[in-house]
């Protein structure tokens, strides 16, 4: 059946909504686009987002990048040892912070899962607690803990741990809620207690997800540990901040390269571990 102008006109008359949105819908769309464009234009004006300023910034950034060549090479062990110590300190901060956050979040996450905790008021209260903890940025927590405990890696460890409690608890509880009830029903039918249902029915399903989340967040916390060091929480970030403040850009870029290499190695090893945990034999991409 060929389409003709008469058939199209008849279909348009019979089903006008299929050819053009109703007037209220068009007005809402126009209003939404108007607000979006006005907000975007205001942001450009308020933050002085001018082409001249952008071009000047690009030129200055090019000057900074020019300092990265040739990269700085530490020639003595005494000179290079503080850099290695800073990298190790950042790695330890991320590891301890992730571990402490997971240890606290793991049992708390069961209270936020609706298939485990049937008390609605308690479950909602626990979930809101997750949100309150996650509302504090790691950098803000680090500044608070630095004020309380002084400079060094301890405030960074505590900041990462507290921040990860809210993140891990939320992700773990969602993973627990998404498990199947069939293994749990099987354990229950065989006479298993409530704890045994969780241990043998729920945990085997959720542990690969939990391990994957832990490994990913550990990698992310290594990068966060670098930023925390800049504000005084120790680690390689403190050394990087010191080199930048002294305009020793070639050494600063060498430190950045080492950080990138460390993150890459951690990402590769995490991929191997994740592939091993979920049962895949091939290596990471």
Q: Indicate the mean pLDDT.
A: 83
Give the radius of gyration.
27 Å
Residues in helix, % = over 70%
- Measured between the Cα atoms of the first and last residue, the distance is 51 Å
Q: What's the helix-strand series? A: HHHHHHHHHHHH
Poorly predicted runs of 5 or more residues:
281-285
User: What is the strand content?
Assistant: under 5%
Number of strands: 0
Approximate shape: flat
| SS content category | mainly alpha
- Sketch the major β-sheet: none
Q: What is the helix tally?
A: 12
Task: Give a description of the structure.
The protein is mainly alpha-helical and 285 residues long. 80% of the residues lie in helices and 0% in strands. The chain contains twelve helices and no strands. It has helices at residues 5-14, 16-19, 23-46, 51-66, 77-111, 120-134, 138-149, 153-177, 182-189, 194-233, 236-245, 249-277. The radius of gyration is 27 Å and the shape is flat. The model is unreliable at 281-285 (pLDDT under 50).
Map the helices and strands.
Blueprint: H1 5-14, H2 16-19, H3 23-46, H4 51-66, H5 77-111, H6 120-134, H7 138-149, H8 153-177, H9 182-189, H10 194-233, H11 236-245, H12 249-277
Give a quick precis of the structure.
The chain has helices at 5-14, 16-19, 23-46, 51-66, 77-111, 120-134, 138-149, 153-177, 182-189, 194-233, 236-245, 249-277.
